[in-house]
Amino acid sequence: IDLPNNANGYTATYQTCCRVDDIENITNFNGSSTGSTFTCTIPPNTYMDSSPEFSTSIDVICAGKPFQLFYEATDADKDSLVYSFGAAYDGGNFRDDKNANPSPPPYNSVNYINGFNESGPLGAGAKIDTKTGIISGSAPASGKYVLEVSVLSYRKGVLLNEHREDFI
Fold this sequence. Notes:
- This protein has 168 residues and is an all-beta fold.
- Helices cover 0% and strands 33% of the residues.
- The chain has no helices and 10 strands.
- It has strands at residues 10-16, 36-42, 53-54, 66-70, 73-74, 80-85, 126-128, 134-138, 147-155, 158-167.
- It has a 3-stranded antiparallel β-sheet with strand order 4-8-7, with no helix packed on it. Strands 6-9-10 form a 3-stranded antiparallel β-sheet, with no helix packed on it. A two-stranded antiparallel ribbon has the order 1-2.
- A hairpin with a 2-residue loop joins β9 (147-155) and β10 (158-167).
- The chain is flat, with a radius of gyration of 17 Å.
Protein backbone atom coordinates (compact mmCIF):
# COMPACT_ATOMS: atom_id res chain seq x y z
CA ILE A 1 0.00 0.00 0.00
CA ASP A 2 1.32 3.44 -0.87
CA LEU A 3 0.45 6.05 1.74
CA PRO A 4 0.74 9.77 1.11
CA ASN A 5 3.52 11.49 3.01
CA ASN A 6 2.30 12.68 6.38
CA ALA A 7 4.38 14.95 8.62
CA ASN A 8 3.16 12.97 11.67
CA GLY A 9 3.55 9.50 10.19
CA TYR A 10 0.96 6.79 10.78
CA THR A 11 -0.01 4.30 13.46
CA ALA A 12 -1.71 1.08 12.38
CA THR A 13 -3.43 -0.75 15.23
CA TYR A 14 -5.16 -4.09 15.67
CA GLN A 15 -6.99 -4.86 18.89
CA THR A 16 -8.47 -8.17 19.90
CA CYS A 17 -10.39 -9.36 22.88
CA CYS A 18 -8.40 -12.17 24.18
CA ARG A 19 -5.23 -13.66 25.50
CA VAL A 20 -4.98 -17.27 26.57
CA ASP A 21 -6.09 -17.95 30.13
CA ASP A 22 -3.84 -18.47 33.13
CA ILE A 23 -0.85 -16.34 32.16
CA GLU A 24 1.62 -16.16 35.05
CA ASN A 25 2.92 -12.60 34.71
CA ILE A 26 -0.19 -10.51 33.90
CA THR A 27 -3.74 -10.26 35.19
CA ASN A 28 -5.50 -12.70 32.89
CA PHE A 29 -7.19 -15.33 34.99
CA ASN A 30 -10.47 -16.84 33.85
CA GLY A 31 -12.95 -14.00 33.53
CA SER A 32 -10.43 -11.15 33.58
CA SER A 33 -10.54 -8.35 31.06
CA THR A 34 -7.08 -8.33 29.47
CA GLY A 35 -7.09 -8.01 25.70
CA SER A 36 -4.34 -7.30 23.19
CA THR A 37 -3.29 -4.26 21.19
CA PHE A 38 -0.74 -4.61 18.41
CA THR A 39 0.65 -1.50 16.75
CA CYS A 40 2.92 -0.56 13.90
CA THR A 41 4.18 2.97 13.53
CA ILE A 42 5.20 4.32 10.16
CA PRO A 43 7.37 7.41 10.63
CA PRO A 44 7.21 10.49 8.41
CA ASN A 45 8.95 10.03 5.08
CA THR A 46 12.09 11.87 6.25
CA TYR A 47 14.10 8.67 5.74
CA MET A 48 13.24 5.74 3.54
CA ASP A 49 13.22 2.93 6.10
CA SER A 50 12.69 -0.82 6.00
CA SER A 51 11.45 -2.47 9.17
CA PRO A 52 13.70 -5.00 10.89
CA GLU A 53 12.75 -8.62 10.26
CA PHE A 54 12.70 -10.93 13.26
CA SER A 55 14.08 -14.44 12.94
CA THR A 56 12.65 -16.05 16.04
CA SER A 57 12.67 -19.76 16.64
CA ILE A 58 10.26 -21.68 18.80
CA ASP A 59 12.34 -23.07 21.64
CA VAL A 60 11.57 -25.21 24.64
CA ILE A 61 12.44 -23.42 27.86
CA CYS A 62 12.55 -25.59 30.97
CA ALA A 63 11.47 -24.15 34.32
CA GLY A 64 14.36 -23.10 36.55
CA LYS A 65 16.99 -23.98 33.93
CA PRO A 66 19.38 -21.75 31.96
CA PHE A 67 18.07 -20.83 28.51
CA GLN A 68 18.73 -18.70 25.43
CA LEU A 69 16.00 -17.44 23.10
CA PHE A 70 17.46 -16.05 19.90
CA TYR A 71 15.31 -13.01 19.19
CA GLU A 72 17.51 -11.04 16.85
CA ALA A 73 16.38 -9.06 13.83
CA THR A 74 18.06 -8.02 10.60
CA ASP A 75 17.64 -4.64 8.96
CA ALA A 76 17.91 -4.32 5.17
CA ASP A 77 19.05 -0.69 5.56
CA LYS A 78 21.87 -1.72 7.96
CA ASP A 79 20.43 0.59 10.64
CA SER A 80 21.64 0.14 14.22
CA LEU A 81 19.19 -1.84 16.34
CA VAL A 82 18.77 -1.60 20.12
CA TYR A 83 16.65 -4.20 21.92
CA SER A 84 14.74 -4.04 25.20
CA PHE A 85 11.79 -5.55 27.00
CA GLY A 86 8.77 -3.26 27.06
CA ALA A 87 5.17 -3.11 28.18
CA ALA A 88 2.69 -5.28 26.31
CA TYR A 89 -0.50 -3.38 25.54
CA ASP A 90 -3.95 -4.21 26.83
CA GLY A 91 -6.97 -3.48 24.67
CA GLY A 92 -9.88 -4.77 22.72
CA ASN A 93 -13.30 -5.59 24.08
CA PHE A 94 -12.70 -8.67 26.22
CA ARG A 95 -14.63 -11.77 25.13
CA ASP A 96 -15.80 -10.09 21.91
CA ASP A 97 -13.52 -10.76 18.96
CA LYS A 98 -15.61 -8.88 16.36
CA ASN A 99 -13.57 -6.62 14.10
CA ALA A 100 -13.99 -3.02 15.25
CA ASN A 101 -12.09 0.21 14.83
CA PRO A 102 -9.50 0.38 17.61
CA SER A 103 -9.20 3.26 19.99
CA PRO A 104 -6.40 5.75 19.20
CA PRO A 105 -3.08 5.86 21.08
CA PRO A 106 -1.82 6.11 23.72
CA TYR A 107 -2.47 2.53 24.84
CA ASN A 108 -2.51 1.13 28.36
CA SER A 109 -0.06 -1.50 29.49
CA VAL A 110 -1.22 -4.90 30.66
CA ASN A 111 -1.25 -5.27 34.46
CA TYR A 112 1.88 -7.19 35.50
CA ILE A 113 1.56 -9.36 38.62
CA ASN A 114 3.48 -11.80 40.82
CA GLY A 115 6.62 -9.64 40.94
CA PHE A 116 6.95 -9.42 37.14
CA ASN A 117 7.06 -6.12 35.25
CA GLU A 118 7.65 -4.74 31.76
CA SER A 119 11.44 -4.73 32.17
CA GLY A 120 11.41 -8.18 33.79
CA PRO A 121 8.58 -10.16 32.16
CA LEU A 122 10.38 -13.43 32.99
CA GLY A 123 11.64 -12.23 36.37
CA ALA A 124 15.00 -10.97 37.57
CA GLY A 125 16.77 -14.11 36.29
CA ALA A 126 16.24 -13.32 32.59
CA LYS A 127 17.67 -10.45 30.55
CA ILE A 128 17.72 -9.26 26.94
CA ASP A 129 21.00 -8.28 25.29
CA THR A 130 20.51 -4.73 23.99
CA LYS A 131 22.87 -5.33 21.04
CA THR A 132 21.89 -8.85 19.90
CA GLY A 133 18.30 -9.34 21.09
CA ILE A 134 19.22 -12.65 22.72
CA ILE A 135 17.03 -13.34 25.74
CA SER A 136 18.83 -15.49 28.29
CA GLY A 137 19.13 -16.40 31.92
CA SER A 138 17.33 -18.70 34.29
CA ALA A 139 13.77 -19.57 33.30
CA PRO A 140 10.91 -18.81 35.70
CA ALA A 141 8.44 -21.43 36.97
CA SER A 142 6.53 -23.46 34.41
CA GLY A 143 3.70 -21.52 32.77
CA LYS A 144 2.70 -18.99 30.13
CA TYR A 145 4.27 -15.51 30.12
CA VAL A 146 3.62 -12.40 28.02
CA LEU A 147 6.78 -10.81 26.60
CA GLU A 148 7.07 -7.63 24.57
CA VAL A 149 10.32 -6.91 22.76
CA SER A 150 11.00 -3.40 21.47
CA VAL A 151 13.62 -2.70 18.83
CA LEU A 152 14.72 0.87 18.23
CA SER A 153 16.13 1.61 14.75
CA TYR A 154 18.84 4.27 14.49
CA ARG A 155 20.55 5.70 11.41
CA LYS A 156 23.62 7.89 11.95
CA GLY A 157 22.55 8.38 15.57
CA VAL A 158 19.01 9.48 14.66
CA LEU A 159 16.09 7.45 16.03
CA LEU A 160 13.90 6.39 13.09
CA ASN A 161 11.30 4.13 14.64
CA GLU A 162 10.33 1.66 17.34
CA HIS A 163 9.29 -1.84 16.35
CA ARG A 164 7.36 -3.90 18.92
CA GLU A 165 6.49 -7.57 19.12
CA ASP A 166 4.26 -9.03 21.82
CA PHE A 167 4.09 -12.80 22.25
CA ILE A 168 3.37 -15.55 24.80
